[in-house]
Amino acid sequence: MMALTNIRDTIPRWVYVILSVAGFVIPLAFWQILSGTHIFSALFLPSPERVFKSFGRWAVSNLWEDTYVSVYQVVSGFLLAAVVGVPIGIYIGTFKIVEALLQPINDFVRYMPASAFIPLVLLWIGIGESAKVSIIFIGVFFQIIVMVADAVRNVPQKYLEAAYTMGAKKGEILSYVIFRGAAPDIFNILRVNMGWAWTYLVIAEMVAADRGLGFAIMQAQRFMDTPKIFVGIIIIGFLGLLFDLSFRIMHRIFFAWSYK
Amino acid sequence: MISTGRVEIKGICKSFRIRKDKKISTWPALDNINLNINPGEKVMIVGASGCGKSTLLRLISGLDQPTAGSITVDRDLVKGPGADRGVVFQQSTLFPWMTVWDNIIFSRRLCISLNARDEQVSRAVYRSNALVTLMGLDQSVELYPNQLSGGMQQRANIARALVSSPKVLLMDEPFGALDAQTRETMHKVVNHLFKVEKTTVIFVTHDVEEAIVLGDRIIVLSANPGRVDTTFTTESVNRDEAGMVKRNDVSFFEFKEQILSRIRATTTMRATDDLLQKVAKD
Ligand SMILES: Nc1ncnc2c1ncn2[C@@H]1O[C@H](COP(=O)(O)OP(=O)(O)OP(=O)(O)O)[C@@H](O)[C@H]1O
Ligand SMILES: [Mg+2]
User: Fold this and answer.
1) What keywords is this UniProt entry annotated with (chain B) (predicted)?
2) Is residue B124 part of a domain?
3) CA spacing 20 to 30 A to B47: which of A174, B98, B171, B199?
4) Which CATH number fits domain A63-259: 3.90.245.10, 1.10.3720.10, 3.90.650.10, 3.90.1170.50?
5) A179 touches chain B (CB under 8 A)
6) Inter-chain contact B110–A255, Cβ cutoff 8 Å?
7) Are A223 and A141 in contact (CB under 8 A)?
8) Ligand 1: which of B55, B170, B222 to mutate, judged by most atoms within 8 Å of the beta carbon?
9) Is residue B175 in a domain?
10) Nearest to B44 by CA among B175, B238, B136
């Protein structure tokens, strides 16, 4: 009997792959069976087949445009938040005076739900692209800041001390030690926040958009087009997975040193 | 040539603030330490655990500030850490995100500006290469620190600390985490190194044999608070033709016993029968 249940132990690659596929196939089969029994009306639970057909119909109309719009919004909102948030987080985690100035207010704003800002954003910016980008930005910006600040604080003091004894100055400590040391964690933080950005995109598109996947889902609900709602949700999940996977692969390439 | 690396430690005291029973009190770790260390001298500091060896080394490195007293290196007052004093810690401090080579050349790279002359760069590379070979790391320069064994990591740490030709090399139990065999190999390497590098060395260890093998002078610190208890020189120990201490010689054992008895006398930790029985009862 092969030991597959050892704590933190690795398992053979093929076992891993089979289990991951099964993780998808089992719910799918369950869904197929459940919809076949007609316990629920097709309006509430369409069969996988109908959902797939709906996907085909959407694909030949404007699925790609909707997807493109959504991806574009997510990436812009996320990048904007990352480009501004990461440096702020690094400075908060490194300099106490920046921490004192920015961390309390950041924590305060962070606990305000981003969706509660939607009315305000609509009031200030109106419906459209910039409204969506703003909502995504608000959703992840403050989170990125706290998480990056923590990652930076976690760089062991011994590396900073070693650098000082080799004559490093403040700026050099910041770029060669603190930033380099925290980079793998910062990258992971960005991956997690990319996932949240998708959540905020859909929320934003449901109320503040005239295009995009979230908007399409809302429209489908209005016309009782349940299969299309399913397609929309699945596509968003799929895109999220794709982004997550590419972040993980890049992490392995950029930060090979952090793996044993 | 004027020899450099004279370290003068004058009246050094260091106390820590500690909280005990909700009161903050100061606790003296080092009390009035005076030491004059000559250029190129290899000074070993031994003493019971917790007597303040690491504290003293951190003060010389400039990572901590003394409560009183002053430390000078070639008349320059130590105000903070600097490249003139290389440090090797017990735990490796190689940056995991850089290859061994990038780690070793780190301090040189800091000094060399973007528009440095080629000759400056090649001199830094030349010395780094020499140290890499001396430390037996030729095959490992492209590896990352987590791919090295403990002994290799410490050799890389030593090379890194030496690459900028510091006046003083400070070592805090650099081989404390290594097994006995590796440690003995390291002693050979370091002995060789100490002969070619004229840098002053202040070396903290709890291993008395290590201190005898590597040092010119051995200083025993007493504990609570840390004071200079006794100073020994290793002149009286017999050596072989290569100048290495003879480990199997009677003089070696006698000398070791002398030092150990001083350490024992200054240890505050006691394993008396009385205490042991108390522990056993519970
Ligand atoms: N940051 C600190 N705050 C409070 N007390 C400290 C601090 N650093 C060291 N001490 C105290 O100072 C004393 C000396 O510590 P130090 O680490 O220098 O001992 P050491 O001789 O290096 O011991 P060892 O051989 O176990 O490494 C100890 O009693 C320790 O508790
Ligand atoms: Mg110590």
Assistant:
1) ATP-binding, Nucleotide-binding
2) no
3) B199
4) 1.10.3720.10
5) no
6) no
7) no
8) B55
9) yes
10) B175
Q: Tokens 């982004």 map to which residue?
A: A243
Q: Which one of B30, B53, B222 would you pick to mutate in the ligand 1 pocket, going by the greatest count of ligand atoms within 8 A of its CB?
A: B53
Contacts of A161 in chain B (CB under 8 A): 63, 81, 87, 93
Measured between CA atoms, how close is A165 to chain B, in angstroms? 5
Residue B21 lies in a domain: yes
Number of separate domains in chain B: 1
Q: Which atom of ligand 1 is nearest to the CA of B27?
A: 5
Across B41-70, average pLDDT:
94
Kindly provide the b/e burial profile for residues B81-117, where b requires at least 16 CB atoms within 10 angstroms of the residue's own CB: bbbbbbbbbbebbbbbbbbbbbbbbbbbbbeeeeeee
> Per the confidence metrics, is the pTM higher than 0.90?
no
CB contact set of B160 (below 8 Å; sequence gap of 6+): A166, B94, B103, B104, B106, B107
**pLDDT (tens digit per residue) in B181-220:** 888 888 988 888 888 888 999 999 989 999 999 999 999 9
CA-based R_g, chain B, Å? 20
Chain B residues whose beta carbon lies within 8 Å of the beta carbon of residue A176: 95, 106
Is B260 domain-assigned? yes
Strand B42-47 relative to strand B200-204, pairing: parallel
Alpha-carbon distance of A194 to B61, in angstroms, equals 44
What domain range includes position B170?
7-84+166-281
Query: CB–CB of A148/A85 below 8 Å?
Result: yes
Q: Which residues line ligand 1 (CB under 6 A)?
A: B 16, 18, 29, 47, 49-55, 206
Looking at the complex, does the CB of residue B128 fall below 8 Å from at least one CB of chain A?
no
For chain A, what are the domain ranges? 63-259
What CATH number does the domain containing B214 carry? 3.40.50.300
* Predicted pLDDT at A94: 96
Q: How far is the CA of B54 from the centre of ligand 2 (A)?
A: 4
